[in-house]
Amino acid sequence: MNGRMIIGHIENIELPELGIKQLTVRVDTGAQTSSLHVDNIQRTHIGHKPAVSFDIHPEIHNVDKTVPCTALLHDIRKVKSSNGLCEQRYVIKTPAVLGTHKWDIEITLTDRSDMTYLMLLGRQALGEHFYMDAANAFIASQV
């Protein structure tokens, strides 16, 4: 199918440069950009390049566990959230791994503490890589 992998509406991905081995994400074709729940976002630098530091909660059932991360700042964008409000968010670009597929994705950093999943995988990340099967979950994660 045009070289695209079929994935479910819920999958486990890795974000290796952020030290995340298995993160359960909701695939959201209604969201343009992927978003990740983080805490303690701070502007910083890596060398002379703008960056952000933040804490990630890699386990949905253990919010006390955090992983400190630093990533180059890719962009700052206004994003309309699911409640209809616009907010300015930091955007990072990082490799992601889903099943046997590895590719770079853009992720906005935000507070998703009131959401069921700590990360949404949006349309931009799906791109020409995947088709989504809305009736099934963990299709590619089981590979």
What's this, in brief?
The chain has 143 residues and is mainly beta. It is 3% helix and 57% strand.
Please explain how this structure is put together:
The protein is mostly beta strands and 143 residues long. Helix content is 3%, strand content 57%. It contains one helix and eleven strands, in the order E-E-E-E-E-E-E-E-E-E-H-E. The strands form two sheets. Strands 2, 3, 4, 5, 6, 7, 8, 9 and 10 form a nine-stranded mixed beta sheet that branches. A two-stranded parallel sheet has the order 1-11.
The secondary structure category is mainly beta
Percent of residues in beta strands?
over 45%
| Quaternary structure of the protein | single chain
Described by strand count, sense and barrel closure, the largest sheet is:
9 strands, mixed
Shape field: globular
Number of strands: 11
Task: Tell me the span between the first and last alpha carbons.
Answer: 18 Å
Report mean pLDDT, rounded to a whole number: 90
- Helix run count: 1
Alpha-carbon Rg, integer? 15 Å
